[in-house]
Amino acid sequence: MQHLLTAGAQRALGLAELISGASEAEATDSRHLLAALAHEESRAAEILLAHQIAQAMILQEFELTLPGTEAESDLFATQVPLELSQAIQRFPALRDVLNQALEQASQTSLPVEIGSEHLLWGVLKTEGPHTQWLLSQGAISADSVEATFQSQNQHVAEPIDVDFAFRTVPATVSDQTNTFRTIDAAANRLREGLRVVEDFLRFTLDDAHLTRLLKSTRHQLTEALQFIGQESLIASRDTLQDVGTAISSTSEFDRPSLEHLVKANLKRVQEAARTLEEFGKLISVEAAAIFKQMRYALYTLEKSVLTCVSSQHRLEDCQLYLLASENLCHHGSGPAIRESLAAGVRIVQIREKELSDRRLLEHGRRVRKWTREAGAILIMNDRPDLAVAIDADGVHVGQDELPVREVRQIVGSRRFIGVSTHNIEQARQAVLDGADYLGVGPTFTTATKNFTEAEYAGLDFVKQVAAEITLPWFAIGGINADNLSAVLEAGATRVAVSSVICNHEHPGEMTRDLLEQFAR
Ligand SMILES: Cc1ncc(COP(=O)(O)OP(=O)(O)O)c(N)n1
Ligand SMILES: Cc1ncsc1CCOP(=O)(O)O
Ligand SMILES: [Mg+2]
User: Fold this and answer.
1) Non-local CB neighbours of 61 within 8 Å, separated by 6+ positions
2) Which residues bind 4-amino-2-methyl-5-(diphosphooxymethyl)pyrimidine (predicted)?
3) CA distance linking residue 303 with residue 296, whole number of Å
4) pTM of the model
5) What gap in Å lies between CA 400 and CA 520, rounded to an integer?
6) Is 418 a pocket residue for ligand 2 (Cβ < 6 Å)?
7) Which of 15-29, 40-54, 272-286, 338-352 shows the lowest per-residue confidence on average (mean pLDDT)?
8) Average pLDDT in the 377-389 region?
9) Closest atom, ligand 1, to C-alpha of 381
């Protein structure tokens, strides 16, 4: 039986071959194909992008080179569809990848057509240096994308409609020069804006994770401009004749705070990316596709940066977070909550696993009243619906519970969403998913929640998060008055505790003990 590749998959293989040639490799392998898949405007590129994996990062990691703009491949001509057996013959080092792709494609379409997303699946299913790297960068693996295939109950055989074959060149020389001028100006605006945001991330937020993401966006710009041609851009530059240089709006000088400044520049870079994408389509569809990727990456980055800034303000006074559970408390959780609020706790979580919904609602309303009177934040564990019902300030969810996007639909934009994380990849992902704060642990062994020995993230995880994440986070798990100083030394500035306060004969006293250690 014939198994055909879609036009997008075929072009990706063609580009993979060119990349392996430009990188002077002996054979076209998974790394080259991965770089090519990230380049195409295709389902594979969308999946990679959703995991924050850009082509520039792949090229850098595996020391690959993109072919020159003039490089062509017979595989780009899609009038002659490639058959799987021909592809295997031409790319022997990709045999396993292609067979895995076939297996996945066979589950969703008849007649079988292998698309770029199936090639990506094949790459993820085949062990190699790229698999570990992908997992560490974007937490992407065959398992994590499997749902994408399962949700495609109706497979659409056509590739995403892109006009690679119909590269449009502006009709007149003057149109062409003006297009290059526009691209040159927008690229400069984008580069400068990215620099401003990067300096903010480095020197004000001091956030290594977001700085790294922004850097990879800057690399994408360089990569896209290679398709346009630096010489053409410089040749068409005409700053003296640019009517825009004399026009400045008062709002351009209106930056009352660092936050305004970074917001304005985030908007500016998105606008510049849109201009590049639109005008880029007239010169190079490849470049336009990268500009589009950049625009989406910048939206995610904007959200993460602004959430980080606003959560830092909103959680400014919240160093000690109490998780209150009835079954841990000597005299019920009510007195523990009220005493610790009186002693200075500014954020409380209702963590009840055994109460019926009706009792949880009643209890929640009482705790809402106490926390409101104390001016403290109230978070409901596990239950976005009940968070809304009791008008809590937020909800906390674990790795196996509803994802942030779904929780946001329920609790709205102003409530906190806290996410538990147990390793650095989960922490990075939660930042990009739009969490407002993180739980980081377990730090020490605890009787409050069951973990296997292997699940103890320990102080090393606390140190990792401290080194790169500035979205507010709380170290959690087995923290008490004796080991708190070690947690703070590891870089935590906030901790969440349960048994040490709930179990104490005088919860207020223990709260004061712990809070005093933050003041030292
Ligand atoms: C602040 C904070 N961090 C972590 C957790 C744990 O949440 P989860 O992993 O969902 O486990 P349960 O608490 O639901 O058993 C938390 N609740 N709060
Ligand atoms: C809910 C939870 N998640 C990670 S550790 C933990 C338990 C925290 O309780 P304690 O402070 O009693 O160890
Ligand atoms: Mg939970």
Assistant:
1) 133, 137
2) 349-353, 381, 420, 449
3) 11
4) 0.69
5) 37
6) no
7) 40-54
8) 98
9) 17
* CB of 351 sitting under 6 A from ligand 1: yes
CATH architecture of 4-164: Orthogonal Bundle (1.10)
Predicted ipTM of the assembly: 0.99
Mean pLDDT for the chain overall: 88
For range 290-313, the mean pLDDT? 94
Residues annotated in a binding site for Mg(2+) = 382, 401
Is the distance from CB of 500 to CB of 481 less than 8 angstroms? yes
Q: Is the CB of 319 under 6 A from ligand 2?
A: no
Across 1-15, 70-84, 243-257, least confident range? 243-257
Which CATH architecture does the domain made up of 317-519 adopt? Alpha-Beta Barrel (3.20)
The CATH class of 167-311 is mainly alpha
Q: Please give the helix or strand (H or E) that residue 270 lies within, else none.
A: helix 258-280
Task: Give residue limits of the domains in the chain.
Answer: 4-164, 167-311, 317-519
Hey, whose CA ends up nearest to atom 9 of ligand 2? Answer: 498
Contact present, 53 and 138 (Cβ < 8 Å): yes
Question: Which helix H or strand E contains 113, and what residues bound it?
Answer: strand 113-114
Q: Is the CB of 224 under 6 A from ligand 1?
A: no
| 167-311 matches 4-164 in CATH topology | no
